[in-house]
Design goal:
The relative contact order is 0.08. It is rod-shaped, with a radius of gyration of 19 Å. About 75% of the residues lie in helices and about 0% in strands. By secondary structure, the protein is mainly alpha-helical. The chain contains 2 helices and no strands. The protein has one domain.
Length: about 40
């Protein structure tokens, strides 16, 4: 917790980018059409 070693400040954008990329991958693979067809029956 020393100001001369800002590891958290350096890691936050990297981890945020990884989480956003994983979310994007999950959302693009979501079977929306199949779910809509299943719910409309």
């Amino acid at each position: 917790k020393d100001i001369s070693n800002p590891l958290g400040v350096r890691l936050a954008p990297v981890l945020g980018s990884i989480v956003a990329l994983l979310g994007l991958i999950i959302m693009t693979r979501y079977p929306e059409k199949q779910i809509k067809d299943l719910l409309s029956k």
